[in-house]
Amino acid sequence: MIRKTVANVNEALEGVQDGMTLMLGGFGLCGIPENAIAQLVALGVKDITCISNNAGVDDFGLGLLLHKHQIKKMISSYVGENDEFERQMLSGELEVELTPQGTLAEKCRAAQGGFPAFFTPAGYGTEVAEGKETREFNGKMYVLEEAYKADFAFVKAWKGDEAGNLIFKGTARNFNPAMCGAATITVAEVEELLPAGSLDPNQVHIPGIFVQRIFQGENYEKRIEQRTVRQRN
Amino acid sequence: MLDKNGIAKRIAQEVKDGYYVNLGIGIPTLVANFVREDIDVEFQSENGVLGMGPFPFEGEEDADIINAGKQTITTLPGASFFDSALSFGMIRGKHVDLTILGAMEVSQNGDIANWKIPGKMVKGMGGAMDLVASAEQIIVAMMHTNRAGESKLLKQCSLPLTGVGCVKKIVTNLAVLEITPDGFLLLERAPGISVEKIKEATEGTLIMDGEVPEMKIA
Q1: Which of B56, B66, B162 sits opposite A171 (nearest CB)?
Q2: Residue A90: predicted pLDDT
Q3: Which residue among A101, A168, A223 sits closest to B88, beta carbon to beta carbon?
């Protein structure tokens, strides 16, 4: 067994520097690496490029990094629900690259799986395709999209073991699996870190080979963005 | 004239037994409430769930189980969770049978714009560009005119496009229309709405094939 455990979040983020490109898992506030984000705020690293489907809300998630002006560029598919983000974008303080959601996921998976690029129909004929190679296959037009290159990927899983194997829960899975192994160093934080042998190998979603560092996170808030319920009859 | 629930009710008639369906945010989400109970349908949410159920009862919300609108949801028997890359594989690979989404503008050749108003609103396309580029069947649910009273059914879209030549059918508060090579084909009128009124509210070319029946909404 190759051990991937680190003692805490400080060790987990060792080597993160100004100007780096970081991938962060999560959809909205669901399945975000809360501990890694808090540590990025504490470290005060600047000029970072974040690849993340969303940009958090004003006072949580990546919104915490935006608030401290630590992000130079944001690569996302959807950035609503965040006034500070909008302000920084419109004033030109923040560079924003909007990417179709499926393309964003696939650019991560391509990096993970060793593909330099792929063709997708998403965005053909729109401003997303401007300046990109297009090609026809079987009578339909496709856009060439390149794999991401990132220094760190921060992911959040439900359970993990010392070997770095991961299991996700519900829709908190989202972008986390595709980001594992898509950066030079993948850091996984888990709600429950278990000894090797505790997870059924049949149930592992992401094998430890894609993870360089794993630690047990603390104090998960798991904030709900749109709490929606129905009445009992 | 239909309200949002009326539009959703009419679209629900397009949902057939055995369909996997992706519902966008807004009016499309309401469609799930009106699908016939004697057919089997599974709803997909692109953030990674198939077999979506109703909203949870108060106190039973789970922060780890949400839909693409970030609302708390439940799952039905037979449901599954998956990652975003696999989710868009379902969409891109045409395994999802029907996509229902909202729009700011639709042109008579089936172009759709729904993600950006330059200088005013930039929230992003989310999964919409992937959905419209791949789905075999796309139904747009929207109001016929915008808040300023201007037509949303145009000869050409004025806003940045989400996809080109992809919309097949449109259900608005006034009408059901189909995209054809000759323009918007008026299929049905909303209860009490005249052809004249629909013509007035449609900037693009509107064509008819004989008498236009009124929608039947239970």
Answers
A1: B66
A2: 84
A3: A101
Q: How many residues does chain B have?
A: 218
Mean pLDDT of chain A: 97
Instruction: Give the pLDDT confidence score for residue A86 in this predicted structure.
Output: 86
Q: Three-state SS for B160?
A: coil
* Sign of the torsion angle spanned by Cα atoms A210, A23, A65, B83: negative
Whether B1 and B173 have beta carbons less than 8 Å apart is answered as: yes
- CB of B25 within 8 Å of any CB in chain A? no
**Rounded Cα–Cα distance for residues B42 and A40 (Å):** 40
Enter the DSSP assignment of A131: T
Phi, then psi, of B4 in degrees rounded to 5? -60, -40
How far B71 CA sits from the closest chain A CA (Å)? 5
SS3 B45: strand
Cβ A89 vs Cβ B122: under 8 Å:
yes
- Report H helices in chain A: 9-12, 34-43, 63-67, 83-90, 101-113, 176-179
With an 8 Å Cβ cutoff, is B98 touching chain A? Answer: no
What per-residue confidence (pLDDT) applies to B8? 97
Asked if B112 and B167 touch (Cβ cutoff 8 Å), the reply is yes
Largest CA distance in chain A: 56
Whether this model's pTM surpasses 0.80: yes
Residue to mutate among A126, A142, A230, with most B CBs inside 10 A, is A126
Q: Given the structure tokens 């996170």, which residue do they identify?
A: A217
Tokens of A214: 């794993």
| Amino acid identity for residue B56 in this structure | P
The pLDDT of B131-139, averaged and rounded, is 95
**Distance in angstroms (rounded) separating the CA atoms of residues A54 and A77:** 7
For residues A72 and A49, the answer to whether their CB atoms sit within 8 Å is yes
**Distance of alpha carbon A212 from alpha carbon A189, whole angstroms:** 11
